[in-house]
Specification:
Helix content: 40-55%
Radius of gyration: 11 Å
Strand order of the largest sheet: 1-2
Oligomer: single chain
Order of helices and strands: EHHHE
Number of domains: 1
Length: 66
Amino acid sequence: MTPIHPEIRVRMTGESQHALFIMGRAVAAMRRAGLPDSDRQAFLAEATAGDYADLLATVRRWFQIA
């Protein structure tokens, strides 16, 4: 499945697996890519709507994983 933003890569390997760290890396990548606040808010709403597994699935749905 192609991510919503395939041009954005979020590094997940070799990093902290803490949920806030993961969300922070994703949001920072979105800022660097110049995405609007509305996209960041939509991502965060989806990422925080469930549990840890849902967060990881959301990151995979939105971005390329590095």
